[in-house]
Inverse folding.
């Protein structure tokens, strides 16, 4: 079974469990990646966060059930995993614009979100320069912030974090402890089980941990390292989306259980010719 088939099998699992207890870890296991990378990969390829997709699909099916007249509102709420009618009512209205009770009326307008099916189309209209490297484990130090796994929100929130740290004077302090073996400020998404991940603005370092900073051991791994050219943050975000949706499906590799890393050398990040790197942890397909 190839990468795309496994991804679609995970969608089958989601659809089969809309009315029962969905387990993120099981969906990720079917797709042969970590829960962290599964959520990120889903968001990049589908263009919608995994949690939002599941919510829309549940409310689509709930509308069918209620409109049929065979379900009470409380029964539909329990079927789709809501402990209270209030929470179910809120979710239903956010999708359909009316209450669950109102969905029973004849002629009422409802929304339907069909199940997703992944069919990757490789555009090939722009090159991607990359290399494959295996690296030993290394330590990073810097500022850390925890985020929920929501790619659309994080596209805005993580750049804000960089701006805040710039205002706080973090970068000169990082340069004082930076290892010469890996020259640049690093953006590191660490793999977390569950719905959150930690993002570090950091440098590789073997010096004592500075006051007020956090540290993390990046595990030994093989990385697909992509060159990124363009103004930040738009260029790196567009590259990461292309890597997952265009390169990964046909590369002969799949996600490894290690962090995603961005490497930002010194320079004007608003310049259209600015160059940095995006590191994707990979392993050969089995």
């Amino acid at each position: 079974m190839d990468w795309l088939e496994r991804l679609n099998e995970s969608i089958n699992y989601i659809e089969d469990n809309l009315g029962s207890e969905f387990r993120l870890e099981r969906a990720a296991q079917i797709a042969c990646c970590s829960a962290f990378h599964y959520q990120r990969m889903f968001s990049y390829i589908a263009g919608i966060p995994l949690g939002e997709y599941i919510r829309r699909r549940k409310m689509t099916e709930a509308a069918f059930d209620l409109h049929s007249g065979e379900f009470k509102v409380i029964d539909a709420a329990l079927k789709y995993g809501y402990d209270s009618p209030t929470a179910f009512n809120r979710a239903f209205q956010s999708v359909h614009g009316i209450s669950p009770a109102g969905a029973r009326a004849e002629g009422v307008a409802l929304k339907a979100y069909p199940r997703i099916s992944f069919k990757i189309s490789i555009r090939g209209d722009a090159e991607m320069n990359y290399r494959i490297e295996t690296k030993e484990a290394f330590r990073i130090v810097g500022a850390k912030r925890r985020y929920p796994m929501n790619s659309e929100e994080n596209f805005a929130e993580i750049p804000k974090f960089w701006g805040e740290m710039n205002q706080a004077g973090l970068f000169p302090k990082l340069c004082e402890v930076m290892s010469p073996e890996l020259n640049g400020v690093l953006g590191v998404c660490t793999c977390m089980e569950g719905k959150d991940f930690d993002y570090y603005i950091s440098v590789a370092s073997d010096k004592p941990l500075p006051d007020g900073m956090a540290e993390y051991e990046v595990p030994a791994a093989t990385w697909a390292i992509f060159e990124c050219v363009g103004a930040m943050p738009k260029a790196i975000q567009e590259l990461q989306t292309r890597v997952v949706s265009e390169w990964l499906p046909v590369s002969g590799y799949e996600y490894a259980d290690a962090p995603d890393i961005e490497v930002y050398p010194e320079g004007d990040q608003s310049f259209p010719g600015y160059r940095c790197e995006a590191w994707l942890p990979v392993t050969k397909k089995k």
Remarks:
- DSSP finds nine helices and nine strands in the chain.
- The mean pLDDT is 89.
- The CA atoms of residues 190 and 259 lie 5 Å apart.
